Amino acid sequence: MSVAEGRSGREQLLEAALEYFAANGVHNESLRSLAANIGTSHRMLNYHFGSREGLLAAVVDAVEQRQRLAYAALMDSVGTGLPRTATRAFWNEVVEEALAYGPLVFELAAHAMQGERHAKGLRDTLVTPWIDILAESLVQAGRDPAIAPVQARLALGVVNGLIFDLLLTGDRSGADAAHGLFMDLIGLDDD
């Protein structure tokens, strides 16, 4: 898609970097090396993102934003309940995204855990916003507001753990089965 079709040069570069990092990992990729691999100049990457750290933060934000938009679309489609079919559909969507971008997100999350400068912002975006979103959904579905944040943290931990398992083992059917059991345990109603 060209800039004339609605995407800015920054958006195009971000998408190219996202696809490259998803396929190759971040490692110690310099802006010069990345630029050569995605068909641009390091000066353009600096112009749009300020630094390697700024680019990496934008990459993770883009992946997270996709997942938040998908979740918002799910909630719009189901209203105030959390039906099993919709939750399973969202799980499948998250898994497909994770198969493409999960290793990158986990790599950058590890950078955040290690206190690397480019990933510090991830400490604020990879967990807390999801707990807030999930807790709100649980309350709307009739769960107790006092424990909804804890339930949300549990759900997020289970999903992240199952994605981690899937990315390491490649066992999609095992991860799907475990997710199904989790839905049973938390009492998600059938549609």
Automatic annotation (TrEMBL):
Q: Which UniProt keywords apply?
A: DNA-binding
Q: Where is the signal peptide?
A: none
InterPro entries attached to this UniProt entry: Homeodomain-like_sf, HTH-type_TetR-like_transc_reg, HTH_TetR
Give start and end of each HTH tetR-type domain: 7-67
Database matches in SUPFAM superfamilies: Homeodomain-like
Q: State the superkingdom.
A: Bacteria
Residue ranges of DNA binding? 30-49
One of the Pfam families matching this protein, by short name: TetR_N
Q: List the PROSITE patterns hit by this protein, alphabetically.
A: HTH_TETR_2
Q: Give one GO term, molecular function aspect.
A: transcription cis-regulatory region binding
Q: What is this protein called?
A: TetR/AcrR family transcriptional regulator
Say which species the protein is native to.
Arthrobacter jiangjiafuii
